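=== Given protein ===
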Amino acid sequence: MKNSFVKDLTDGQSVKEMFAVKEKTKAKSRNNKVYVTLKLSDRTGTISGKIWENAERKYELFEKGDIVLIEGYTSSYKGVLEIHIDKIRKCGEEEYDIGDFLPVSGRSIEEMKKELFDFVNSVKNEYLQNLLRAVFKDEEFMKKFENAPGSVGIHHTYVGGLLEHTLNVAKICDTVARIYPEIDRDLLISGALLHDIGKIYEYEVSASIASTNAGKLIGHIVIGTHLVEDKIEQFEDFPEELRINLLHLIVSHHGEYEFGSPKLPQTAEAAALAYSDLLDSKTEDFLEIKKNANDEWSSYVGHLERKIYTGKKKNG
């Protein structure tokens, strides 16, 4: 676990600490000596790092996106603080908390996981509950799921964001099911819990949160559909009609073709899920913009095609 952060570093300080590698480049000095420049970060900021001794060998010990343990000291070069690195190695996942390097949900991950399984246990249909258990009891899957963001640059853009968003959508759907008792609650809640699971492969959480090649080329709707189909195949007697209806919720949850939805919602449950998903994502988007704004009005937000009124007093 980290003991000190970028914001704590001062000139002439001995450093033995973990940082995320955001960039790494190799170059040659005027006397033709190879050196390495790193852009290191944690949740409080970024700092440059330099490797001078055995630079080529050390360059091969880690990759961009890795968490590394470095030993060295800080110095000021042209008024900018940097770290002179003597030793460096890649860290294993068990050595660090990703929350030290990236923004994290304000909610406890463990509390949210408990809430998730409360929803799973509330599903009375045995086929759907068994399916949900097969998905969320998978430890490898769950590790990815609890670390994944809800998106990149739009809503829930932090570690635990996907889990938080999923729970919000499930809560909205639960309310909808109480208002409209004709809706199949078990189907709707199952769709809410599963609708975005493809995001565990759409986004990559390392030194930063970014889209993967699979995310860019295939997308989470298609990925998630395949994940659910693969789990369903484990159950020989899973009803075909139920399978089709559940998959329809996943493939239609973006609501409109222009939002990347392969199909439009064509059942009451699918419509309820699509609008619940939209409600949470848009509301969270507005709240994040308001939180980060400094003035009464935000700057122009391209993906919303408007400025957002924050109610904050103008600076100065």
